[in-house]
Amino acid sequence: MKGIAIEIKWAFIFVLVTLAWMAFERAIGLHGAYIDKHAVYTNLYAIPAIAVYVFALLDKRKNYYNGTMSYKQGFISGLIITGIVTLLVPLTQYITSSVVAPGYFSNVISHVVEEDKMTLEEAQNYFNLRNYIIQGLVSSPVMGIITTAVVSFFTSAKKKKSEEFTS
User: Contact 41/25 with Cβ under 8 angstroms?
Assistant: First the structure.
């Protein structure tokens, strides 16, 4: 357990950042008055999501691997974070839909029906907690693996030549 303490910490930080982002979206009206803009602006969430992975892998490199970390070590660390985040998707989605943004589903259903983008039945079948949990269980590992692959490349660090001679 001690070997993955950093990953556990950062997975929970990721969940908190996700919930904070949802609260931010709601606060600025993307779940209500500006719901028509939600599909575009919600993509900005990628910035803090990627930042969490960067900080997590830098933390792992510094505090577990003593400043050197191979791509493989970083990738495995990121996969562990992704796995934990994925396991927490149902809880995260439940908290989002019941506490952080309880009106989101009804608002987005109304919006897409009014805009003739979906029928009421289609919208209700798509915009609901069960479907969002399923989507999260699929998209979290996919996006997490892609993010991990890229971030691991940039956060890996080899020993400096001077350190190789003193080791």
Answer: yes
DSSP reduced 3-state for 91:
helix
> What is this structure's pTM?
0.92
The two tokens of residue 139 are: 């998209």
Tokens standing for residue 99? 């506490």
Tokens of 81: 């974070």
Distance of alpha carbon 58 from alpha carbon 83, whole angstroms: 19
Per-residue pLDDT of the chain (167 residues; tens, 9 = 90+): 679 999 999 999 999 999 999 999 999 999 999 999 999 999 999 999 999 999 999 999 999 999 999 999 999 999 999 999 999 999 999 999 999 999 999 999 999 999 999 999 999 999 999 999 999 999 999 999 999 999 999 999 887 655 555 55
On the CB side of 9, how many CA atoms lie within 13 Å of its CA?
Answer: 12
The CA distance from 97 to 92, in Å, is: 9
CA dist 141 → 22, 41, 77, 111, 149 (Å): 20, 22, 13, 29, 12
In 3D space, the residue among 154, 128, 141 whose CA is nearest the CA of residue 57 turns out to be 154
Under 8 Å between Cβ of 68 and 162: no
